[in-house]
Amino acid sequence: MPLNARQIDTAKPKEKEYKLTDGGGLYLLVKPNGARYWRLKYRFLGKEKKLSIGVYPDISLVDARLKREEARKIIALGGDPGEEKKAEKLAQKANVENTFRAIALEWHGYKRPNWSKGYAEDLMCVMRY
Q: Collapsing DSSP states into helix, strand and coil, what is residue 126?
């Protein structure tokens, strides 16, 4: 039986974590501290896997169902939604690092005329890491 908003809002924490299932592998994990997390259980290449969708109420029931459907489409096309999520995070991290590097190099070029040659070279060595 699919979940509804009232069931989710009235879910009380228990001594141990428990699941409220919605169907299609989607469930809400209720922790003893009262935190609620959306998870999706799916199979890929014969193995059971779990995908973290988000925290309730940041991710609503409707949003969680949409994310479940997106994941099902990825699986139907032969992909692993968990691996795609990891790849997206890595790409975002690379974008942030590239942006920082560009700004740092621009700053270095702007300030360099006021520094000694040795200090400017030392800073460049540090910025490479």
A: helix
